[in-house]
Amino acid sequence: MMSWSPQDIPDQQARTVVITGANSGIGFETALALADKGARVVMACRNPTKAEAARERIREQTGGRGEVQIVALDLASLDSVRRAADTLRERYSRLDLLINNAGVMWLRQGHTEDGFERQLGVNHLGHFALTGLLLPALREVPDSRIVTVSSLAHKAGRLHLDNLQLDGRYGRQRAYAQAKLANLVFALELERRLRATEAETLSVACHPGLASTNLAESGVARESPFGVGYVARWLWPLFTQSAARGAAPTLYAATSPQVQGGGYYGPAYLREAVGPPTLVHPSQRARDAADAARLWEQSEALTGVRYP
């Protein structure tokens, strides 16, 4: 496994793949690699102009292999999530792969359209709702997968189940770590529920390690005082791997025949910072089944999406 690279991805023809946040960073590299292997890739993105530019780049770099489509999706709006899910269900009778990739990081305190703390709302609740709405198109499809992208930051996270919105306790890193822990808790709990209902779909999770992407653009570069964020953005690539390498755990989780449901995959070296993908270990908090059940219950109540 530790020698695996995207060149090892099996043929993806006849597979339909939905990737959130596919216009940049790890999402773009994931879309590019899967399209190059022949998949029909659906880029679920908030900004249609950026998504169209990304689609053209993919077409150029793959020589037109695969089919690349765009669906509008703003994870900060449950109305947008429902519209996107409706569009996807109308277009495709079945889905083979859903990659919950999009995210925000280290934002100032703020709220989504539905009143959720932004990092929790976008990173977790938006994906929770989208996955539940699309699950009927996945659950009977052989070898279908739901891949949820977490982060090394999950290890510092706690689920504040009596105050998920962090009212009166907000901190950028606290909110981000909670949201990425929620991603991983969700992925593991989803796998438990899929197995209990004998679904065909697997739920797996991954993280990119330290990768040079624009994820921190809004929260660090634009919102840090005295230009500190822009200096950090300039230095960041010196200590990280590329977005293409950071996408390897996602691609492995999405396509490798060796992957099992409930697996968590990240880089192999330097405490999961860089390197080829391998099986890594969730934190103890991520494996707490009681917390997972409470988070699931609250997520259903907040989003209004109940899983079949």
UniProtKB/TrEMBL annotation:
Gene3D superfamilies per UniProt: NAD(P)-binding Rossmann-like Domain
InterPro entries according to UniProt: NAD(P)-bd_dom_sf (IPR036291), SDR_fam (IPR002347)
Top-level taxon of origin: Bacteria
Signal peptide annotation: none
SUPFAM superfamilies linked to this entry: NAD(P)-binding Rossmann-fold domains
Pfam families recorded: adh_short
Keywords: Oxidoreductase
Record-given protein name: Short chain dehydrogenase
Lineage of the organism: Bacteria, Pseudomonadati, Pseudomonadota, Gammaproteobacteria, Oceanospirillales
